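Long-time lurker. I teach an intro course on protein structure, and each term I like to show students one example going from raw sequence to a predicted 3D structure in token notation. This year I'd like something fresh instead of my usual example. Would anyone be willing to generate the tokens for the chain below so I can use it in lecture? Attribution to the forum is fine with me.
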Amino acid sequence: MGGTAVARSPGLVGRIEERRILGAAIQGAVEGRPCAVFVHGEAGVGKTRLARAVCDEAAANGFAVLWGRCVRFGAVDAPYVPLIGALEGWAESAEARERSEVLDAVPAAGELLPSLGGHTSDSAVRLLSVVDALIQAIASHGPTVLVVDDVQWADLASRDALAYLVAGFRSQRLAVLTTYRDEEMVSGDPMHTWLADLRRLPSVTDVRLDRLSWDETEQQLALLLGGVPHRRLVDQVVRRSDGNPYLTELLVQGLTSTAEGLPTDLAAELTGALLAAWHRLSPPGREVMRLMAVAGRPTSIDDLREVAAARGIDREALTSALAEATNAGISVAQGRDLCWFRHPLLAELLYTTFVPGEAEPVHAAWAATLEARPASGLDELQRQGDLALHYERARDLEACFDASLRAADLAKGIRSPHEEAVHLRRAARLWPMIHHDAGRGSEADLLERVARANDLLGDGEASFAAWSRTLELVDERTDPLRACRVLRRWADSAWATGRTKGRPVAEAEHAVELSRAFPDSHEYADALAYLSWCQWWMNELGLSGTYAEDAVLAAHRSGSTAALALAYAVRGNGDVHGERSDADTAEGLRFAKLTGDPELTWRVVVIRNNYLIRRGRVLECVEILREFLSVALDVGAHSVAVFAAGLLSHHLLMLGRLHESSVVLREGLSLAALPIAGATVRLGAAWLSVRRGELEVAGLHLQRAKELMGLESRAGLAAQTILAEYLLATDAAEQALDLLSRTMVAHFADTRDADEMLVWGARAAADLMEAARDRNDSAALARTRAAFDDLLAVRSTMQPAPFEVSGPDDLVQPAMHALFTAETARCMADKPTSVVWTEAVRRCDEAGLRLDEAVASWRCAQALLDEGATRAVVAVPLRSAYRFAVEAGAAPLRQQVETLAALGRIRLEEPADPSPVQPPAPFDSLTRREQEVLSHLVAGRTYAEIAAALFISEKTVSVHVSNLLHKTSTSSRREVAALAVRLGQPPNSKD
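-- Reply from a regular --
Happy to contribute to a lecture. Here you go:
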């Protein structure tokens, strides 16, 4: 079967602009500018040929080309099929040394590619990370192109992996090309959402292939026929094919350049032309192609021989038939052992040539062949999925059901949630057909598993359908506890999918009544906790508190860890201003972690996070969310993982930790999710892009967030402040101030968000007032002052008062208040302002708000310069801001600092440090800041003096001193200073 794949394959004609776009994308990969290009069009228009031509050129220029194909049959039954194929193809052609280095560099590579001898892991691994690591390792050896052909048939895990690769673009030498048929995408196809998400990522280009023109078709015919075609022939071909290149090729098969026209009996459509080419084969050739079509995917020659033998076709006849089909350009060899159709559309067409019932024995033969081919890992999951499909089409429904459950168990074991849900849904669909006399309880068990699997994926509609059917099956009289549990989950699903307005209090009350006769059951405790939660949402705080107390007592009686988790969390949530809230929410989270249930744990994490945020304890929120996100990704709980990634990224950005936020956002951007979760992640990505100065990218993310859900009036997403920051960055401060004034009232329930909006309102007003004063525009001054006053008036109608501190641990509200005071002073042109900006720097430093601290430092330097301070004094806050901007990649802030430094003729480089290059032990482990603090201690300065000199708070000085004492094993600052003098650590010079 080796040799040429297609009997007569012409070169590529036309496509000049498309080749330019793809060529530029590939050249960008060489230069470390990764990109993705989606090539789409109708069947036969030349998508694959274009990609192949461009990749052949890339391979000739030293690129590694990874080519993965998708097929319709079993498209969603096994994960990462095209990507595994691409990696296995690379491994076959790569040099032994490079292959060994790549596989050795990726832990658990053997989990994905066991045939290549990669490392395996003793515990379950997240396969998406393995896919990403392998492709990144290959790209680290040289520029790489990854192609996924016919991505409309890709399994969902492969689509997630592609999104993960694209969301992680930085400076890799990688280009991603995908092709897909756009005429097959009907309304509601999940592919639409996936494409919409990716098109709103940077470095993504969309290329649509149209049909060829008359001149281009003439060029194609000249290549096909080996000479200049007759004009009449070109006219007839164009009328028949309308410029579809593959149909053109099929129409002129068997003709020469002397032909003046087409035969009269040719089909006018691509499907007809494909079938006509098949009909020209011999009877054995046609039958072998039909057998291959039933296989549904590229198949090994050994498997095809076994199926053919079962159908009465011997080895010699099979070989002749394959050779004939290959010479006719119908089938092709893929690698050394696989065979398939040159165009996948032919497989679909040939399957339609079977009359009803005719294909059933062929499917049975394929199932029998696969039964004799046991495998492991992903290969076994694919085998069981193929078996299920073949058994179903062979009408062996019991065998299909068993194979579906085995596949679901395998998918769960290797943490492939998409595939688990697919196989469970098939099993649930088959249940009524094969278990006519079975008990209803067993079907309800299966449906509960289906519902939970879809809950974890975030497929709300599929989950609601499963819970609804389960509710129909459960008899409240004979099984009230299950009815209680299912009713509660059904009500939650109905609310999540928008089927009910407000929380389902009536259903929650009924769930309590169903379980009331079992006061020691965990169902009763859960029902009480759920009712408390619903009442809290409806602002019935008294009832909520009563039910929460009852839930805690019932949970303790039941001894259920899950019930205790929910009960304590709900009680803490309702008592948010009370003394028990901290302990209750922490206790609820402790119990939730013990359950291993990601859905329950996420609910409790959100409650704990909300409590901590109200107390200003952002760092604790970060650690809780980081831990949860890791667990959720590991177990495949995609729906809650996206929520967690969005929330965590917002906290990290608040703290100025831009690099960490980027890593987290990549996870969230790569997974499908409910609209609110997707919007949360997109807002975080937009916020990060603004702070990096990537305003075009930020606009793409905001556009996608708006497509997912309305933003301006939506509370709880921090959308208004992010939009305001974007508007300020795009010189639209007046729009920002107007937005904040119009939407603040939506935040009456969480005035901390409203207070942050006040800060951004003051910032927008200050920018506008400064610009108006520069222009001597009194009308603009009055207009801005009135708009700012309107914003303040809206906030004055809310309780509590602005910037109220929730307790001694709340350092965020004082920082926000200090920023507001400083921006208001700038707005009103109060002089001097360096004092209020210094206070803002101190407060932000104490709260850990590093970017806000850096911005305040820049503003402080600006104020000091205006007030006539010496360059040495101005340099301290300016260098502090500069250090952060460089370290964090905050390009706009860096530009502002550099501009001010140039204006004031201030060097941003740190003064030379006269201390030894390598400090003696035990000082060799000190950070730069700790060395600075040490030099001041040696000079005998107080905490207050050190804080003023280094532009940090006394509390931060105290922390650095504690670190010094720990690292040097000394007990006081005098002792550490004396040790430094003895070992030759003199105080540093200060300019």
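Some talking points for your students: The chain is about 65% helix and 5% strand. Residues 84 and 113 are 7 Å apart (CA to CA).
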